[in-house]
């Protein structure tokens, strides 16, 4: 598939993909540091996976409520995870770090918008400077993979894959620290491949295989992460799973507009219907 993409738009997409693949290593959180966070016990003094996941869900709530781009959320999570893998952050400072990462992502991707904050401007700017000193960023693999697959399809079949659904599934994965250990292209391709299997879009399978080879993704790694993605989405769709905190956002915003978050919450839940694993 990659070899036959000769249009100008296709070549631009491939160039962007190759650029991101080259930057991947320096934009990846330190896996061994994430493992330390996963193994930490909650004593009020150390960062834990549970605290990190709650913070990410709060940022997902804000992203959904204010209608920010999905890429803004992904970038905020990437910044947060990479900062946590470089610095020892006390739980009491996590909110400030998380909001600073979110604010940086908004400024980088969104147009001029007001970002809600319970922190003072000086505190937020100070934390923003610290975050910038520790991390750099660029994550956009899902969009590129989707666009390249779409470029290879005839017009009448371009609606076979729902990008909004793919975004919703990737957002759910980002709410769990385990997926921060996955390389961004591998995780994006895992979500895409799993959805293609679920929708029984046989004609797109070759496209995934070509993208896998182009990205130099190990087949065993791809299968392993697909299994974890499937497990995550299955648990996320269950009633027992902790979803983004609706009540907390109601406290931040006025009651007259809180229905917007409820609407977006049910919308993303609807998009996260369990994909069927193909043996």
Automatic annotation (TrEMBL):
Coiled coil: none
InterPro entries: Cyclin, Cyclin-like_dom, Cyclin-like_sf, Cyclin_N
This protein's record includes keyword Lyase: no
GO terms (BP aspect): regulation of cell cycle
Residues covered by the Cyclin-like domain: 49-133
Keywords: Cyclin
Similarity field: Belongs to the cyclin family.
Regions crossing the membrane: none
Protein name (Swiss-Prot/TrEMBL): Cyclin-like domain-containing protein
Organism: Chinchilla lanigera
Superkingdom assignment: Eukaryota
Source lineage: Eukaryota, Metazoa, Chordata, Craniata, Vertebrata
The keyword Metal-binding is annotated on this UniProt entry: no
